[in-house]
Amino acid sequence: MKSVVRSIFLLAALAGGQDISGEWQGTVQMGPTALRTVWKFSRTDSGAWSGVLHSIDQSSDWGSGFQMDSVTVEGADVKFASAQIQGSYEGKLSADGGVITGTWTQGRSIPLELHRPSPETAWKDPAAHSVRMLPVDKEAASGKDIRLEVLDWGGSGRPMVFIPGLGNTAQVFDKFAPKFAAQYHVYGVTRRGFGDSSAPATGYQADRLGDDVLAVLDALKIEKPVLVGHSLGGEELSSIGSRYPGKVAGLIYLDAGYSYAFYNKERGDLNIDLAELKRKLAQIEPGGGVADPRPILRDLIEATLPAVDRDLREQQKTLANVPPAMLAAQFGQPAPPVLREIMAGMQKYTSIAAPALAIYAVPHDRGPQPPGADPAAQAAQDARDEETTGAQARAFEAGLPSAKVVRIPHANHFVFRSNEDDVIREMNAFLAGLK
User: Fold this and answer.
1) Which residue from 6, 90, 102, 339 has the highest number of Cβ atoms inside 10 Å of its Cβ?
2) pLDDT tens per residue, range 238-253
Protein backbone atom coordinates (compact mmCIF):
# COMPACT_ATOMS: atom_id res chain seq x y z
CA MET A 1 0.00 0.00 0.00
CA LYS A 2 2.81 2.41 0.89
CA SER A 3 4.43 1.86 -2.51
CA VAL A 4 1.14 2.73 -4.24
CA VAL A 5 0.78 5.95 -2.22
CA ARG A 6 4.42 6.85 -2.97
CA SER A 7 3.87 6.22 -6.69
CA ILE A 8 0.78 8.43 -6.72
CA PHE A 9 2.70 11.19 -4.97
CA LEU A 10 5.61 10.94 -7.40
CA LEU A 11 3.25 11.18 -10.37
CA ALA A 12 1.68 14.28 -8.82
CA ALA A 13 5.13 15.73 -8.17
CA LEU A 14 6.16 15.22 -11.79
CA ALA A 15 3.01 17.08 -12.80
CA GLY A 16 3.88 19.94 -10.45
CA GLY A 17 0.99 19.06 -8.13
CA GLN A 18 2.68 18.78 -4.72
CA ASP A 19 0.25 19.45 -1.92
CA ILE A 20 1.54 20.86 1.38
CA SER A 21 -1.92 21.83 2.61
CA GLY A 22 -2.76 21.04 6.19
CA GLU A 23 -0.82 21.10 9.43
CA TRP A 24 2.91 20.58 9.98
CA GLN A 25 4.94 20.70 13.15
CA GLY A 26 8.59 21.04 14.06
CA THR A 27 10.90 22.11 16.87
CA VAL A 28 13.24 25.11 16.63
CA GLN A 29 16.30 24.73 18.85
CA MET A 30 17.20 28.19 20.21
CA GLY A 31 20.33 27.42 22.24
CA PRO A 32 19.21 25.36 25.24
CA THR A 33 15.55 26.15 24.54
CA ALA A 34 13.42 23.97 22.28
CA LEU A 35 10.43 25.84 20.82
CA ARG A 36 7.56 23.88 19.28
CA THR A 37 6.03 25.33 16.13
CA VAL A 38 2.90 24.48 14.16
CA TRP A 39 2.55 25.57 10.54
CA LYS A 40 -0.73 25.58 8.63
CA PHE A 41 -0.79 25.87 4.83
CA SER A 42 -3.80 26.24 2.57
CA ARG A 43 -4.78 27.35 -0.92
CA THR A 44 -6.47 30.72 -1.44
CA ASP A 45 -9.37 31.11 -3.86
CA SER A 46 -6.87 32.30 -6.48
CA GLY A 47 -4.87 29.07 -6.15
CA ALA A 48 -1.90 30.68 -4.36
CA TRP A 49 -0.51 29.28 -1.14
CA SER A 50 -0.97 30.91 2.26
CA GLY A 51 0.59 29.95 5.57
CA VAL A 52 0.44 30.71 9.29
CA LEU A 53 3.03 30.01 12.01
CA HIS A 54 1.94 29.18 15.55
CA SER A 55 4.78 29.33 18.07
CA ILE A 56 2.97 27.44 20.77
CA ASP A 57 5.63 27.66 23.49
CA GLN A 58 5.91 31.44 23.19
CA SER A 59 2.23 32.33 23.34
CA SER A 60 -0.62 31.69 25.74
CA ASP A 61 -2.96 32.02 22.78
CA TRP A 62 -2.72 28.79 20.81
CA GLY A 63 -5.01 30.14 18.12
CA SER A 64 -3.08 33.26 17.17
CA GLY A 65 -0.25 33.10 14.65
CA PHE A 66 2.02 34.94 12.25
CA GLN A 67 0.92 35.20 8.65
CA MET A 68 3.38 34.24 5.93
CA ASP A 69 3.67 36.94 3.24
CA SER A 70 4.78 34.44 0.60
CA VAL A 71 4.61 30.66 0.24
CA THR A 72 5.96 28.95 -2.88
CA VAL A 73 6.19 25.30 -3.88
CA GLU A 74 8.26 24.57 -6.98
CA GLY A 75 9.07 20.93 -7.58
CA ALA A 76 10.29 19.68 -4.21
CA ASP A 77 11.43 23.15 -3.13
CA VAL A 78 9.32 24.82 -0.44
CA LYS A 79 9.89 28.46 0.58
CA PHE A 80 7.98 30.83 2.83
CA ALA A 81 8.66 34.10 4.61
CA SER A 82 7.08 36.55 7.06
CA ALA A 83 8.03 40.23 7.20
CA GLN A 84 6.11 40.51 10.48
CA ILE A 85 8.71 38.42 12.32
CA GLN A 86 11.52 38.89 9.77
CA GLY A 87 11.87 35.16 9.23
CA SER A 88 12.15 32.90 6.18
CA TYR A 89 12.41 29.20 5.42
CA GLU A 90 13.84 27.13 2.58
CA GLY A 91 13.44 23.37 2.46
CA LYS A 92 12.80 20.29 0.37
CA LEU A 93 9.75 18.06 0.44
CA SER A 94 10.43 14.36 0.86
CA ALA A 95 9.34 11.89 -1.81
CA ASP A 96 6.48 10.58 0.33
CA GLY A 97 5.24 14.11 1.13
CA GLY A 98 5.57 13.65 4.87
CA VAL A 99 8.67 15.70 5.75
CA ILE A 100 10.12 19.08 4.76
CA THR A 101 13.83 19.37 5.59
CA GLY A 102 15.36 22.82 5.54
CA THR A 103 16.56 25.94 7.34
CA TRP A 104 14.68 28.63 9.25
CA THR A 105 16.42 32.03 9.16
CA GLN A 106 15.53 34.70 11.69
CA GLY A 107 18.64 36.69 12.50
CA ARG A 108 20.59 33.44 12.19
CA SER A 109 20.01 30.17 10.36
CA ILE A 110 18.66 27.16 12.27
CA PRO A 111 17.94 23.65 10.93
CA LEU A 112 14.21 22.94 10.99
CA GLU A 113 12.49 19.73 9.94
CA LEU A 114 8.72 19.84 9.55
CA HIS A 115 6.56 16.71 9.81
CA ARG A 116 2.94 16.01 8.97
CA PRO A 117 1.57 14.87 12.33
CA SER A 118 -0.67 11.86 12.77
CA PRO A 119 -3.65 12.04 15.16
CA GLU A 120 -1.42 10.34 17.74
CA THR A 121 1.62 12.64 17.35
CA ALA A 122 -0.17 15.97 16.81
CA TRP A 123 0.36 18.53 19.57
CA LYS A 124 -2.97 19.31 21.16
CA ASP A 125 -4.26 22.40 22.92
CA PRO A 126 -4.46 21.39 26.60
CA ALA A 127 -7.34 23.78 27.35
CA ALA A 128 -10.72 22.31 28.31
CA HIS A 129 -13.00 23.78 25.68
CA SER A 130 -15.03 22.54 22.76
CA VAL A 131 -14.89 24.28 19.38
CA ARG A 132 -17.60 25.02 16.85
CA MET A 133 -17.41 26.84 13.53
CA LEU A 134 -20.61 28.85 13.07
CA PRO A 135 -21.74 30.69 9.92
CA VAL A 136 -22.39 34.41 10.51
CA ASP A 137 -22.39 35.94 7.02
CA LYS A 138 -21.72 35.19 3.35
CA GLU A 139 -19.02 36.51 1.04
CA ALA A 140 -20.62 38.77 -1.54
CA ALA A 141 -18.45 37.60 -4.44
CA SER A 142 -18.46 33.85 -3.87
CA GLY A 143 -21.50 33.26 -1.71
CA LYS A 144 -19.36 31.15 0.64
CA ASP A 145 -20.19 31.02 4.33
CA ILE A 146 -18.10 33.18 6.64
CA ARG A 147 -17.60 31.09 9.77
CA LEU A 148 -16.34 32.10 13.20
CA GLU A 149 -14.53 29.93 15.69
CA VAL A 150 -16.63 29.70 18.87
CA LEU A 151 -15.23 28.18 22.04
CA ASP A 152 -17.36 26.71 24.81
CA TRP A 153 -15.79 26.31 28.25
CA GLY A 154 -19.01 24.91 29.67
CA GLY A 155 -20.77 25.88 32.86
CA SER A 156 -24.38 26.73 33.59
CA GLY A 157 -26.36 29.85 34.37
CA ARG A 158 -26.36 33.20 32.60
CA PRO A 159 -24.28 33.16 29.39
CA MET A 160 -21.00 35.06 29.33
CA VAL A 161 -19.26 35.67 25.99
CA PHE A 162 -15.59 36.70 25.74
CA ILE A 163 -14.26 38.67 22.75
CA PRO A 164 -10.47 38.99 22.28
CA GLY A 165 -8.32 41.94 21.29
CA LEU A 166 -6.68 42.63 17.95
CA GLY A 167 -4.49 39.75 16.77
CA ASN A 168 -5.73 37.35 19.42
CA THR A 169 -8.22 34.52 19.28
CA ALA A 170 -10.74 33.45 21.91
CA GLN A 171 -8.12 31.00 23.16
CA VAL A 172 -6.34 33.90 24.84
CA PHE A 173 -8.97 33.47 27.59
CA ASP A 174 -8.31 29.74 28.11
CA LYS A 175 -7.04 30.21 31.67
CA PHE A 176 -9.28 33.12 32.66
CA ALA A 177 -12.74 32.35 31.25
CA PRO A 178 -13.18 28.95 32.96
CA LYS A 179 -12.95 30.68 36.34
CA PHE A 180 -16.53 31.86 35.76
CA ALA A 181 -17.92 28.48 34.67
CA ALA A 182 -19.19 27.66 38.18
CA GLN A 183 -21.90 30.32 37.84
CA TYR A 184 -22.08 31.10 34.12
CA HIS A 185 -22.09 29.30 30.78
CA VAL A 186 -18.91 30.68 29.25
CA TYR A 187 -18.20 31.12 25.52
CA GLY A 188 -15.55 32.86 23.40
CA VAL A 189 -15.71 34.20 19.84
CA THR A 190 -12.74 34.68 17.48
CA ARG A 191 -13.49 37.56 15.10
CA ARG A 192 -13.24 37.15 11.35
CA GLY A 193 -9.74 37.43 9.92
CA PHE A 194 -8.01 35.70 12.83
CA GLY A 195 -7.24 32.18 14.01
CA ASP A 196 -9.40 29.53 12.38
CA SER A 197 -12.23 31.97 11.67
CA SER A 198 -12.84 32.85 8.03
CA ALA A 199 -10.72 35.68 6.64
CA PRO A 200 -12.72 37.39 3.88
CA ALA A 201 -11.31 40.47 2.16
CA THR A 202 -14.14 42.69 3.44
CA GLY A 203 -16.60 43.01 6.29
CA TYR A 204 -14.43 44.54 9.00
CA GLN A 205 -16.50 47.65 9.71
CA ALA A 206 -17.17 48.06 13.43
CA ASP A 207 -20.91 47.37 13.22
CA ARG A 208 -20.36 44.39 10.90
CA LEU A 209 -18.04 42.86 13.52
CA GLY A 210 -20.73 43.53 16.10
CA ASP A 211 -23.28 41.83 13.82
CA ASP A 212 -20.99 38.79 13.67
CA VAL A 213 -21.23 38.43 17.44
CA LEU A 214 -25.01 38.85 17.29
CA ALA A 215 -25.15 36.11 14.63
CA VAL A 216 -23.27 33.77 16.99
CA LEU A 217 -25.73 34.57 19.79
CA ASP A 218 -28.64 33.82 17.48
CA ALA A 219 -27.10 30.57 16.25
CA LEU A 220 -26.55 29.34 19.82
CA LYS A 221 -29.92 30.75 21.01
CA ILE A 222 -28.08 32.79 23.64
CA GLU A 223 -30.27 35.44 25.28
CA LYS A 224 -29.17 38.43 27.37
CA PRO A 225 -25.51 37.46 27.77
CA VAL A 226 -22.80 39.43 29.52
CA LEU A 227 -20.24 40.43 26.88
CA VAL A 228 -16.61 40.68 28.01
CA GLY A 229 -14.13 42.30 25.62
CA HIS A 230 -10.39 42.81 25.84
CA SER A 231 -8.67 45.64 23.95
CA LEU A 232 -10.24 45.93 20.46
CA GLY A 233 -13.01 43.64 21.71
CA GLY A 234 -14.46 46.82 23.21
CA GLU A 235 -15.46 47.83 19.68
CA GLU A 236 -17.89 44.89 19.33
CA LEU A 237 -19.23 45.60 22.83
CA SER A 238 -19.97 49.23 22.00
CA SER A 239 -21.42 48.37 18.60
CA ILE A 240 -23.97 46.06 20.23
CA GLY A 241 -24.47 48.14 23.38
CA SER A 242 -25.22 51.30 21.39
CA ARG A 243 -27.60 49.70 18.87
CA TYR A 244 -29.18 46.79 20.73
CA PRO A 245 -28.76 47.36 24.48
CA GLY A 246 -31.77 45.15 25.18
CA LYS A 247 -29.96 42.13 23.73
CA VAL A 248 -27.30 42.09 26.48
CA ALA A 249 -27.34 42.01 30.27
CA GLY A 250 -24.09 43.94 30.59
CA LEU A 251 -20.77 44.90 29.02
CA ILE A 252 -17.33 44.46 30.62
CA TYR A 253 -14.39 46.28 29.04
CA LEU A 254 -10.98 44.82 30.00
CA ASP A 255 -8.60 47.69 29.12
CA ALA A 256 -10.91 47.99 26.13
CA GLY A 257 -12.71 51.32 26.59
CA TYR A 258 -10.51 53.27 24.19
CA SER A 259 -11.52 55.56 21.33
CA TYR A 260 -12.76 52.71 19.13
CA ALA A 261 -15.20 51.84 21.96
CA PHE A 262 -16.01 55.34 23.23
CA TYR A 263 -15.08 58.43 21.22
CA ASN A 264 -13.70 61.28 23.33
CA LYS A 265 -14.78 64.45 21.53
CA GLU A 266 -12.30 66.56 23.50
CA ARG A 267 -9.23 64.64 22.33
CA GLY A 268 -10.42 62.99 19.13
CA ASP A 269 -8.60 60.12 17.43
CA LEU A 270 -6.55 60.50 14.27
CA ASN A 271 -7.41 57.11 12.83
CA ILE A 272 -11.16 57.38 13.46
CA ASP A 273 -11.34 61.00 12.28
CA LEU A 274 -9.36 60.19 9.12
CA ALA A 275 -11.65 57.23 8.39
CA GLU A 276 -14.69 59.47 8.77
CA LEU A 277 -13.10 62.12 6.54
CA LYS A 278 -12.44 59.57 3.81
CA ARG A 279 -16.02 58.28 3.96
CA LYS A 280 -17.51 61.75 3.73
CA LEU A 281 -15.19 62.83 0.91
CA ALA A 282 -16.23 59.73 -1.05
CA GLN A 283 -19.89 60.66 -0.54
CA ILE A 284 -19.51 64.15 -2.05
CA GLU A 285 -17.62 62.96 -5.12
CA PRO A 286 -19.66 62.91 -8.34
CA GLY A 287 -21.56 59.65 -8.36
CA GLY A 288 -21.15 59.23 -4.62
CA GLY A 289 -24.82 58.41 -4.27
CA VAL A 290 -25.83 61.42 -2.15
CA ALA A 291 -28.74 63.43 -3.51
CA ASP A 292 -27.89 66.57 -1.51
CA PRO A 293 -24.21 66.87 -0.47
CA ARG A 294 -24.68 70.23 1.26
CA PRO A 295 -25.19 68.86 4.82
CA ILE A 296 -22.08 66.70 4.41
CA LEU A 297 -20.07 69.68 3.15
CA ARG A 298 -21.21 71.74 6.12
CA ASP A 299 -20.26 68.98 8.55
CA LEU A 300 -16.86 68.58 6.86
CA ILE A 301 -16.11 72.29 7.19
CA GLU A 302 -17.49 72.79 10.70
CA ALA A 303 -16.55 69.54 12.44
CA THR A 304 -14.62 66.86 10.57
CA LEU A 305 -11.80 68.93 9.07
CA PRO A 306 -11.14 70.87 12.32
CA ALA A 307 -10.99 67.55 14.19
CA VAL A 308 -8.48 66.11 11.72
CA ASP A 309 -6.42 69.31 11.87
CA ARG A 310 -6.28 69.00 15.68
CA ASP A 311 -5.33 65.33 15.46
CA LEU A 312 -2.55 66.01 12.94
CA ARG A 313 -1.06 68.76 15.07
CA GLU A 314 -1.11 66.49 18.11
CA GLN A 315 0.52 63.70 16.09
CA GLN A 316 3.20 66.11 14.87
CA LYS A 317 3.94 67.10 18.45
CA THR A 318 4.05 63.46 19.59
CA LEU A 319 6.47 62.39 16.84
CA ALA A 320 8.72 65.46 17.00
CA ASN A 321 11.48 63.80 19.02
CA VAL A 322 11.05 60.17 17.92
CA PRO A 323 14.29 58.77 16.40
CA PRO A 324 14.11 58.06 12.63
CA ALA A 325 14.76 54.34 13.17
CA MET A 326 11.71 54.05 15.43
CA LEU A 327 9.60 55.99 12.93
CA ALA A 328 10.71 53.65 10.15
CA ALA A 329 9.81 50.60 12.25
CA GLN A 330 6.37 52.01 13.05
CA PHE A 331 5.40 53.52 9.70
CA GLY A 332 7.76 51.99 7.14
CA GLN A 333 6.14 48.56 6.85
CA PRO A 334 2.69 48.22 5.27
CA ALA A 335 0.07 46.91 7.64
CA PRO A 336 -1.59 43.55 6.88
CA PRO A 337 -4.78 43.93 4.80
CA VAL A 338 -7.09 42.79 7.61
CA LEU A 339 -5.60 45.33 10.01
CA ARG A 340 -6.04 48.11 7.44
CA GLU A 341 -9.67 47.08 6.95
CA ILE A 342 -10.33 47.09 10.70
CA MET A 343 -8.72 50.50 11.17
CA ALA A 344 -10.67 51.96 8.24
CA GLY A 345 -13.91 50.52 9.63
CA MET A 346 -13.73 52.10 13.09
CA GLN A 347 -16.45 54.56 14.00
CA LYS A 348 -17.56 56.90 16.77
CA TYR A 349 -19.54 55.44 19.65
CA THR A 350 -20.74 58.07 22.10
CA SER A 351 -23.94 56.62 23.57
CA ILE A 352 -24.07 53.14 25.13
CA ALA A 353 -27.25 52.29 27.02
CA ALA A 354 -26.35 48.84 28.35
CA PRO A 355 -24.92 48.50 31.89
CA ALA A 356 -21.13 48.70 31.65
CA LEU A 357 -17.97 48.10 33.65
CA ALA A 358 -14.74 49.54 32.23
CA ILE A 359 -11.44 48.46 33.78
CA TYR A 360 -8.38 50.49 32.76
CA ALA A 361 -4.70 49.77 33.34
CA VAL A 362 -3.41 53.26 34.13
CA PRO A 363 -0.55 53.87 34.15
CA HIS A 364 0.38 50.70 32.29
CA ASP A 365 3.04 48.33 33.51
CA ARG A 366 5.95 48.33 31.04
CA GLY A 367 7.62 45.20 32.30
CA PRO A 368 11.10 44.78 33.78
CA GLN A 369 13.29 47.83 33.29
CA PRO A 370 16.95 47.50 32.27
CA PRO A 371 19.64 48.05 34.90
CA GLY A 372 20.27 51.74 35.45
CA ALA A 373 16.92 52.82 34.01
CA ASP A 374 16.25 56.49 34.68
CA PRO A 375 13.47 56.88 37.29
CA ALA A 376 12.70 60.33 35.91
CA ALA A 377 12.14 58.87 32.44
CA GLN A 378 9.85 56.21 33.90
CA ALA A 379 7.91 58.86 35.78
CA ALA A 380 7.57 60.85 32.55
CA GLN A 381 6.18 57.77 30.78
CA ASP A 382 3.66 57.27 33.57
CA ALA A 383 2.66 60.92 33.30
CA ARG A 384 2.08 60.59 29.54
CA ASP A 385 -0.01 57.48 30.15
CA GLU A 386 -2.05 59.35 32.74
CA GLU A 387 -2.56 62.11 30.16
CA THR A 388 -3.79 59.72 27.45
CA THR A 389 -5.28 56.60 29.09
CA GLY A 390 -6.34 58.58 32.14
CA ALA A 391 -8.11 61.13 29.95
CA GLN A 392 -9.91 58.34 28.10
CA ALA A 393 -11.06 56.79 31.39
CA ARG A 394 -12.40 60.17 32.53
CA ALA A 395 -14.19 60.67 29.21
CA PHE A 396 -15.81 57.21 29.47
CA GLU A 397 -16.89 58.04 33.00
CA ALA A 398 -18.30 61.45 32.10
CA GLY A 399 -19.96 60.33 28.87
CA LEU A 400 -21.58 57.25 30.39
CA PRO A 401 -22.51 58.29 33.95
CA SER A 402 -24.19 54.96 34.71
CA ALA A 403 -21.02 53.00 33.89
CA LYS A 404 -18.64 51.77 36.57
CA VAL A 405 -15.04 52.77 35.79
CA VAL A 406 -12.14 51.10 37.62
CA ARG A 407 -8.46 52.05 37.36
CA ILE A 408 -5.73 49.55 38.26
CA PRO A 409 -2.31 51.25 38.55
CA HIS A 410 0.64 49.56 36.84
CA ALA A 411 -1.39 46.71 35.42
CA ASN A 412 -0.49 45.14 32.09
CA HIS A 413 -2.65 45.74 29.01
CA PHE A 414 -3.64 42.06 29.45
CA VAL A 415 -5.08 43.14 32.76
CA PHE A 416 -6.97 39.86 33.25
CA ARG A 417 -3.56 38.16 33.48
CA SER A 418 -1.42 40.67 35.35
CA ASN A 419 -4.14 41.49 37.93
CA GLU A 420 -6.44 38.51 37.73
CA ASP A 421 -7.71 38.70 41.33
CA ASP A 422 -8.52 42.42 41.02
CA VAL A 423 -10.36 41.89 37.74
CA ILE A 424 -12.36 38.92 39.03
CA ARG A 425 -13.34 40.88 42.14
CA GLU A 426 -14.55 43.88 40.11
CA MET A 427 -16.34 41.67 37.60
CA ASN A 428 -18.15 39.73 40.32
CA ALA A 429 -19.26 42.94 42.03
CA PHE A 430 -20.60 44.27 38.72
CA LEU A 431 -22.28 40.97 37.81
CA ALA A 432 -23.97 40.75 41.20
CA GLY A 433 -25.72 44.06 40.52
CA LEU A 434 -27.19 43.07 37.14
CA LYS A 435 -30.85 42.28 36.82
Assistant:
1) 102
2) 999 999 999 999 999 9
The second-level CATH assignment, the architecture, of 13-115 is Beta Barrel (2.40)
Contact 357, 403 (CB under 8 A): yes
Read off the pLDDT band of 420 (50, 70, 90). Answer: very high
Helix axis angle, 206-219 to 233-243, nearest 10°: 80
pTM: 0.88
The three-point CA angle 192-198-201 to 5° equals: 75
Residue 87 and residue 107: Cα distance in Å, rounded? 8
DSSP secondary structure of 55-114: ETTS-S-TT--EE-SEEEEETTEEEEEETTTTEEEEEEE-TTSSEEEEEEEESEEEEEEE
Determine contact, residues 41/67, Cβ cutoff 8 Å.
no
Domain boundaries, the chain: 13-115, 130-262+349-432, 273-332
Say whether 263 sits in a helix, a strand or coil.
coil
Measured in degrees and rounded to the nearest 5, phi and psi for residue 298 equal -60, -45
Strand pairing of 404-408 and 356-361? parallel
The helix/strand/coil state of 269 is coil
Other beta carbons less than 10 A from residue 60's beta carbon: 16
Average pLDDT over residues 170-184: 96
Q: State whether residue 230 is helix, strand or coil.
A: strand
Provide DSSP, 271-295: HHHHHHHHHHHHHHSTTSS-S--HH
Are residues 163 and 225 in contact, defined by beta-carbon separation less than 8 angstroms?
no
CATH topology of domain 130-262+349-432: Rossmann fold (3.40.50)
Distance of CA 133 to the CA centre of its chain: 18
For the ranges 82-86, 306-310, 366-370, 410-414, which has the lowest average pLDDT? 366-370
DSSP bridge partners of 74: 77
What span, in angstroms and rounded, lies between the C-alpha atoms of 47 and 383? 51
Torsion of CA 134, 140, 143, 149, to 10 degrees: -20
Give the whole-angstrom CA distance, residue 202 versus residue 212: 13
The Cα 336–Cα 14 span in angstroms is: 35
Task: Give the largest Cα separation in the chain, rounded.
Answer: 76
The pLDDT tens digits for 367-414 are 787 777 788 878 888 888 888 899 999 999 999 999 999 999 999 999
Q: Which residue from 117, 124, 85 is spatially nearest to 100, judged by alpha carbons?
A: 117
Q: Strand, helix or coil at 12?
A: helix
